[in-house]
From TrEMBL:
Domain of life assignment: Bacteria
Similarity remark: Belongs to the NapC/NirT/NrfH family.
GO biological process: anaerobic respiration
GO MF, any single term: metal ion binding
Residues covered by the NapC/NirT cytochrome c N-terminal domain: 2-155
InterPro entries xref list: Cytochrome_c-type_ET, Multihaem_cyt_sf, NapC/NirT_cyt_c_N, NapC/NirT_cytc_sf
Region (Disordered): 187-215
Name this protein carries in UniProt: NapC/NirT cytochrome c N-terminal domain-containing protein
Compositionally biased tracts (Basic and acidic residues): 204-215
Keyword Iron: yes
Highest classification ranks of the organism: Bacteria, Pseudomonadati, Campylobacterota, Epsilonproteobacteria, Campylobacterales
Pfam families in UniProt: Cytochrom_NNT
GO cellular component: plasma membrane
Length: 215
């Protein structure tokens, strides 16, 4: 009987620990995550949407195909973050180069866990249907984040990373200087990709160039 009670208690504590270590409040403890946390709070996945939904960090950044993979990856990333936050200088880290490895940190199983109806939802929209058709039929080997890197998850992350490297960087919710104009985080969130931010998606880079020409 005592063993059963202990098992239940340990199970409950494990579930609580997993939930507590999976959101932005916990992940934001590390100063090395400051740009990611700031840009997350300005993104639709961070709550800037019409329904108030807020995805947890682990919803996107851990695999959800099975429990074992989830815990193994969570442990590895946790150790890497603690090591980096303790022994490395984030100001000297090549953040933009690391963004090119996004497929190692964002998992399709996480995307499809929330967007489970994506296949049916895009069927009536030809522009959205065609690329997703190839994905669901196995004709495309691209991961979700390869097409959506500059669109979801972290609003204007390139700008936040660039600002983070400055000596006088002030984290959210302080204002940013964009093109010499002081902007609040709310104003910043309305800009597709401010001048000076670095997009890695070719389509987004083209759109950014057109936007810059109009300024």
């Amino acid at each position: 009987m005592g063993g059963c009670v202990l098992g239940v208690v340990l199970s409950v504590l494990t579930v609580q620990a997993v939930e507590w270590t999976g959101d932005d409040k916990f992940c934001g403890i590390c100063h090395i995550m400051t740009p990611e946390l700031n840009s997350y709070h300005l993104d639709r996945h961070g709550g800037k949407n019409g329904v108030g939904f807020q995805a947890a960090c682990v919803d996107c950044h851990l695999p959800h195909n099975n429990v074992m993979n989830y815990f193994i990856r969570k442990t590895i990333l946790g150790i890497e973050d603690v090591y980096g936050n303790t022994f490395k200088d984030p100001k000297k880290f090549d953040w933009e180069a690391n963004r090119k490895r996004a497929t190692e940190y964002v998992f399709d199983s996480g995307c499809l866990r929330c967007h489970a109806n994506l296949k049916d939802a895009t069927s009536s929209n030809m522009k959205a249907f065609l690329p997703h058709r190839d994905y669901f039929n196995g004709l495309s080997q691209k991961k979700c984040v390869e097409c959506h890197l500059d669109e979801v998850g972290h609003k204007n992350l390139g700008l936040h990373l660039k600002e983070y490297l400055k000596e006088n960087y002030k984290p959210y919710p302080n204002a940013f200087l964009v093109g010499g104009k002081k902007m609040s985080p709310e104003e910043l969130a309305t800009i597709p990709n401010p001048k000076g931010a670095k997009a890695t998606n070719p389509k987004q880079r083209s759109e950014d160039a057109k936007l810059d020409q109009r300024r």
